Amino acid sequence: MEGNKKPLMGVVVNCMNLNIRKEPTQASRSLGIIGSDTVVKVCDDESVSGF
Question: Using H for helix, E for strand and C for coil, what is the string for the chain?
Fold first, then answer.
C-alpha cells in the first residue's frame, strides 16, 4: 500500500462461494473460489464497480 493508506478489508457474504474471474463478466474463466465468511483484502484501485 502506498504511503499511510490502510488496506481495505472485506468479508465474503451473500453467497456460499465467490468466483474470482479473469474479467468482470460471468462468462469469463474462473481463476479460483473464495468461501463464504472469508476475510479478503480489496485492491480498491483495481476493483470493478458493481461486479
Answer: CCCCCCCEEEECCCCCEEEEECCCCCCCCEEEEEECCCEEEECCCCCCCCC
In a domain, 31, yes or no: yes
Instruction: Quickly tell me which residue has 457474504 as its cell.
Output: 13
The answer to whether 48 and 26 are in contact (CB under 8 A) is no
Query: Domain count of the chain?
Result: 1
Look at residue 37 and tell me whether its pLDDT is greater than 90.
Answer: yes
- Give the domain extent around 29: 8-42
pTM: 0.63
